[in-house]
Design brief:
Layout: E1 4-10, H1 14-25, E2 30-34, H2 47-52, H3 54-72, H4 88-113, E3 116-124, E4 129-134, E5 140-149, E6 153-155, E7 168-169, H5 171-174, E8 183-187, H6 191-202, E9 206-210, H7 222-234, E10 238-240, E11 244-251, E12 254-261, E13 264-270, E14 272-275, E15 279-281, E16 314-316, H8 327-341, E17 355-357, E18 362-367, H9 370-376, E19 380-386, H10 391-396, E20 402-408, E21 414-421, H11 424-436, H12 441-445, H13 456-464
Parallel strand pairs: 1-2, 1-5, 2-3, 5-16, 7-14, 8-9, 8-14, 9-10
Antiparallel strand pairs: 3-4, 4-5, 6-15, 11-12, 12-13, 17-18, 18-21, 19-20, 20-21
Helix pairs in contact: 1-4, 1-8, 3-4, 3-6
């Protein structure tokens, strides 16, 4: 093992491994430090996202939806099936195989790009030195010209519901429940809580979601959020807003949860409880006292727009820094930093980072909500069209939800796009591309969209912003 590197990346998640690969592609002698041990008791790259986050949760979401469809939704398509049973062990094995294949693929990419994978922990010290402690061995001090901090985040713990990974679990434990709980509680109606709650509801759990705030998905355009809540409730999720959990007690393999809302104090008993109240930057042991890196009041590492810390040559990316805790944001920051190190002026456009909730229907958004546009005081217009007016959605039996645009009334520029409905995670990219190129609503109106396709709803929503929609009846807003 060398003692000196051009670049040392601490963290092998989406931001870290991509940064390492891009640095190596640019000719830099690069090492990546990662400590994770996977379920097979082997060192693994990919971070939270690939191992216990984005990928395994999507595998379960897709598998559970197929189970749900087979149970009740295929008959209307003329597909008749006999008794349907659940093999949860096989479902988990499939999920774990996908994770293993993807994380193993990153290891192969490291070899192909000549990235040195250092298995263990890393701590930034003064003068861009990194103390590397192997998983099995003594610590060693390494020197780098550049250091990229990419340690990611961990679930937030709350004292009123201490996680034991048996009865009370976090997002990681919720991916590996050995059997379907008869009654499942979820603390937190955010992205993670809704996705995991959806998985187990489809597999047969009675799911109650307790959310402390009074507004459902407050960061989402509220027209979209209200429709989402309506559809998830119809699917069986019992979403209780303004419900602040005050305590929990495990009793004989069950958990009694106390919470308070506008009607007073309540108690519910669950077979399992998922704590999904957010994530926090993982900085434990990452920085020595003399590292010189500044943290803000919420313990995020302070960086500029190109992810430079206060220490020249030291960068921080992903969940460690400001902005949404999203894998794709971390990935693009990793690429940006690698190219900045080489003297390029690459810049992530933080105004066009999309967000997605992989429930069914999916929810996705980019840019400003109508509430944000209204609060700005600038004149704006909106175009909204439901999937119920779309032939492709109807043919697929996926007519719930809508596409919505928010645009500047004066300049006609697209300010935001919001979707709840089929393939929202894919459709939202049309809004991302439009905003990235400074498109106007008229630009989208003049484009030809394939027929029949879900994308036609994007076209119709753009037309609707100027009362030109063909396939929905519109009433002009009163001035």
């Amino acid at each position: 093992m060398a003692d000196n590197y051009d670049v040392i990346v601490i963290g092998g998640g989406p931001g870290g491994y991509v940064a390492a690969i891009r640095c190596a592609q640019l000719g830099l002698n690069t090492a990546c430090i990662e400590k994770r041990i996977n379920k097979q008791d082997q060192p693994a790259l990919g971070g939270t996202c690939l191992n216990v986050g984005c990928i395994p949760s999507k595998a379960l979401l897709d598998s559970s939806w197929k189970y749900h469809e087979t149970q009740g939704a295929l008959a209307e398509h003329g597909v008749k099936v006999g008794d349907v049973s659940l093999d949860l062990d096989t479902m988990h094995k499939r999920k774990d195989t996908i994770v293993k294949n993807l994380t193993g693929g990153i290891a192969q990419l490291f070899k192909a790009n000549k990235v040195t994978w250092l298995q263990g922990t890393g701590q930034l010290k003064a003068n861009k030195q990194v103390e590397f402690t192997p998983l099995d061995g003594d610590a060693q001090v390494l020197q780098a010209e550049h250091v990229i901090l990419a340690a990611g985040s961990v679930p937030v713990d709350i004292p009123v519901a201490p996680v034991d990974q048996k009865v009370i679990v976090d997002s990681t434990g919720a991916l590996d429940l050995p059997k379907v709980p008869k009654r499942l509680g979820v603390i937190g109606a955010g992205v993670i809580g809704l996705e995991l709650g959806s998985v187990w509801a489809r597999l047969g759990s009675e799911v109650v979601v307790l959310e402390a705030v009074d507004t459902f998905l407050p960061a989402v355009d509220q027209q979209i959020a209200k429709d989402t809540q309506k559809q998830l409730t119809k699917q069986g999720l019992d979403i209780r807003l303004g419900a602040r959990v005050t305590g929990s007690e495990v009793k004989k393999d069950k958990v009694e949860v106390s919470y308070a809302d506008g009607d007073g104090d309540h108690q519910e008993t669950f077979d399992r409880l998922i704590v999904a109240v957010g994530r926090r930057p993982y900085t434990e042991g990452l920085l020595s006292q003399d590292a010189g890196v500044t943290l803000d009041e919420r313990h995020y590492i302070y960086v500029d727009s190109q992810c430079r810390t206060d220490v020249p040559g030291v960068y921080a990316i992903g969940d460690l820094v400001r902005g949404p805790a999203l894998a794709h944001k971390a990935i693009e920051e990793g690429v940006m930093v690698a190219e900045v190190i080489m003297g390029e002026s690459t810049q992530v456009n933080y105004d066009t980072v999309p967000s997605v909730i992989y429930t069914h229907p999916e929810v996705a958004w980019v840019g400003k909500t109508e509430e944000e546009a209204k609060a700005s005081g600038e004149a704006y217009k909106t175009g909204v069209v439901p999937f119920a007016a779309n032939g492709r959605a109807m043919a697929a039996g996926e007519t719930g939800g809508m596409v919505k645009f928010v645009a500047d009334e004066k300049t006609d520029r697209v300010l935001g796009m919001h979707v709840v409905g089929p393939q929202a995670s894919e459709l939202i990219q049309q809004g991302v591309v439009a905003m990235e190129f400074g498109a106007t609503i008229e630009d989208l109106q003049l484009m030809v969209f394939g027929h029949p396709s879900l994308s036609e709803t994007v076209h119709e929503a753009a037309l609707a912003a100027d009362f030109k929609a063909i396939h929905v009846a519109q009433r002009r807003r009163k001035k």
